[in-house]
Write a structure and sequence with these properties.
Elements: E1 3-7, H1 12-33, H2 40-50, H3 57-76, E2 79-82, H4 90-95, E3 98-100, H5 109-125, H6 131-134, H7 150-153, H8 157-170
Parallel strand pairs: 1-2, 2-3
Helix pairs in contact: 1-3, 1-5, 1-8, 2-8, 3-5, 5-8
The chain binds zinc ion.
Zinc ion binds at residues 118, 122, 129, 157.
Length: 181
């Protein structure tokens, strides 16, 4: 089930593209996590966003749960996207299947996909934020501030979002999904 509505009605095409990309990317990640076999390039993005190039069974297990619950949430419900500045209340939003974020009018499909995945992992995967230690930088090469611990990364919303976008690039999905840079 796709996006039911976007309020207010701006960035609608980007948000719909972001949703479509999120579904395809997360499906691809879940399928690969099940194999527990990763290429050198894939291990490098584990290192960047989950702070380990040797993902433990514990990390893989948590990632499977977060991505699967997020996938089930976004495909099994009619999602409302609210672009506003109301302080997020994750429980309230999840109950109403409402994903809330602020996108600038200049936002790209790629940014919409990143924001959408970030917020969707909060709602359906019970992830957290860790201040600037946990927010990735604009080009997704690392975090805005230092000090995030691997144990925190395991449940850090932006680690999931940035990993997903990097994964789509590695898997050659981004162009087809129209979220290439
Ligand atoms: Zn967040």
């Amino acid at each position: 089930m796709p996006i039911e509505s976007v309020q207010p009605k701006r960035n609608v095409e980007e948000i719909k593209a972001g949703y479509t990309a999120a579904v395809a990317i997360i499906r691809s990640i879940i399928s690969k996590l099940g194999t527990e076999q990763f290429s050198t390039e894939e291990l490098a993005i584990f290192q960047t966003f989950f702070l380990t190039s040797n993902p433990s069974k514990d990390l893989i297990g948590r990632m499977k749960v977060v991505f699967q619950d997020t996938y089930d949430g976004i495909t099994g419900n009619n999602i409302i996207v609210l672009q506003g500045k109301v302080a997020p209340n994750t429980k309230r939003l999840a109950k109403n299947n409402t994903i809330e974020f602020s996108l600038q009018t200049s936002a790209t499909n790629r940014m919409a996909a990143h924001y959408f995945i970030h917020e969707a992992t909060h709602l359906y995967g019970d992830t957290a934020d860790h201040s600037y230690r946990g927010y990735v930088n604009a080009d997704r090469t690392g975090f805005q501030d230092t000090g995030l611990k691997a144990e925190e990364a395991k449940n850090n919303a932006d680690s999931y979002a940035a990993f997903a976008i990097a994964w789509s690039d590695l898997a050659g999905l981004s162009s087809g999904l129209n979220i290439a840079k």
